[in-house]
Fold these 3 entries.
Entry 1:
Amino acid sequence: MVFVTMILAACNSSELSITEIQSIPIEVQDRINTDYTLQLINDSEKGEAYIIFQSSGTVAAQVEVRENILDIKLDSANQENNELKQYVYKITRGDSEYDTVNVIVNGQVTYFDNSTGF
């Protein structure tokens, strides 16, 4: 019983987080365009966002809020071939408040190719 409670509490965390996901919700799948390198898809009902990033390397992601700005940092390494892999990340807002989103790919500010929502 205690274990189940801990799992449920972790799922309802009020902290900002970014997690790579393998099981992509159908609403998100329907909006992914493989012609774009970097996409943002917002789920306004749940307050979550999905980042879709295509890279030929291994990607590490982290988020940080400073003042009213959300920094999404994507670092791509081991780019040995030109074969693109699609990475899908879910951002859970938690209690954090921000009105600006910056994406930083390998230290460079980058812009979304597309931003949409449902």
Entry 2:
Amino acid sequence: IITRIIDFALAILGPLSAIMVLIAGALYMTGGGNPEKIKRAHRVLIWALVGIAVVILAKSAEILVRQVINVKP
């Protein structure tokens, strides 16, 4: 079950992360020097990267646990 959840998250990760990075870029471009808009764009980019890292670490942890207990997918 955990493998299916992680694989599903990975399948959504690519398009969703690309969209979030594009949104952050658009917010930077339309910020016009407004510190609040720039700060918002920065937060969007940071959280998009945190989400990517969490899903990648989850997959890495799954692989590591499988290797430790010698279970094949």
Entry 3:
Amino acid sequence: MYQVDEIAYADERRQTLKATSVRPLEDHKVLVVFSTGEFRIFDASSLLKAPAFAPLIDDSLFKTAAVDHGVVVWGNGNIDISTVYIYEHSKPVTGCDSGPIV
């Protein structure tokens, strides 16, 4: 239980998960650094069949991946995906140091 602005919440307080850096990789994958300090690889290829993500088939658009307010976006924010979804559907990477991806 925790309290914020005099409102009591029964659940445990959770850190808001945010993406802090992203780097497009080959085969419609991205390397994402999360606010937890974790590096994870997300494979977006399974999403490309959905109309909202179909434009990402174009490699030049896919390579525009960026972070906007903690969310991975493409095409100047025209396409985005839930940070929690990326985290839950990605694989951890070991051997990476902390710091921004350039």
